[in-house]
Description:
By secondary structure, this protein is an alpha/beta fold. The chain folds into two domains: 7-254 and 327-346, Alpha-Beta Complex (Spore Coat Polysaccharide Biosynthesis Protein SpsA, Chain A); 258-311, no CATH class. The protein contains eleven helices and twelve strands. It has helices at residues 22-39, 60-63, 98-107, 125-131, 161-170, 203-208, 223-233, 255-258, 265-276, 280-290, 308-320, and strands spanning 7-13, 44-51, 73-80, 113-116, 121-123, 140-149, 172-176, 201-202, 237-249, 259-262, 294-297, 341-346. Helix 7 (223-233) packs parallel to helix 11 and helix 10 crosses helix 11. The radius of gyration is 20 Å and the shape is globular. It starts with 6 loop residues before the first strand and ends in a 7-residue tail after the last strand.
Amino acid sequence: MVVQPYLSIVGWARNDGYTPNYEKRLEHALGVLVRQLDKHKVPSELIVVEWNPPPDRPLLAEEMGSLGPTGNVTVRFIVVPPQHHEGLQGWRTRGMHVNNAANVGIRRARGKFVTPKALDTFYSEQLVARLGQLTLDDGCVYRCDRLDARMEDESWLDLPDDQLLAALARSTVHRNDRLTHSIDWKMRDLHTNACGDFILMSTQRWHDIRAYQKDPSVLCLDSDSIALHAAAAQGASEIHWQDECIYKVIHGNTHAQRTATVWKDWQLRLDHYLVARHRRELAMALRVWLDYPRRRVRGLEEILAPSIERNFVAKAARYARNDTSFETNDADWGLAREALSERTVLRAAWDTP
């Protein structure tokens, strides 16, 4: 009999060399997290969704070394075959669709609470200790800051867990803390900065909001922030843990380093004209209505993404009015009707097959 775990952590991966030493980074990060969760006795599962695996490389589940032993943590790999990726805008250039991959894991999560997690990040010891208290409230959504660390070389991959976390703390160069949104956006003041690395709430809440929004392209912009606002519209109260954090080792594919806005001359002139005449509300309405400035992501220049005003601000403003009829995904989100291949590489004592 399978006992419901307290926590499910959902990640996504693809064996395509996304970063140098990707397989080693993934195995190391998973191992650290397994050991932390086991140390603090959190009945939990880690779900890794292998999205659109390259046919010429082994599955990541086959590359994992020992992650245990453990009595508290199960590690599951779920494989989503290429046909679910082909046809998306930009699919030939980028093999990953973060929204869809995360949704597959969230839909199949068994925990009482769920959080998505980029698999190359690390939880601070304080964060896992907090989770180990097993005192989460299903009426809340929990956030913490992400700290970006710059490591000089790859030697950190061989450090013991405690030394690694200390090195990450020493090497922090930027803290993604709470930002203040423009009052023109007319949305709730939520901690959306780097929120994709930690949005912890009940599994039921994730189902209520239908997880991450549907995106016909591989860019998946703003989806984490939209989910946070959707949860608030459903009644979730945000709790910002300020003494706990997540560490991310900076690499060349970090989102903020790849995205830029694209203005046309007439858009800039119109925007400056309206702002100078204190017509900021009209300027914002035109950005939403006419969808500018659009955004371009390095490496996917063939796609001109929607403006943040059209794709995020307008939706968050609706959620600020508690418009719970507004849904950003289909009822069968997360490939709910698909039977997907699954492999358990580590099984907790609570998880009896």
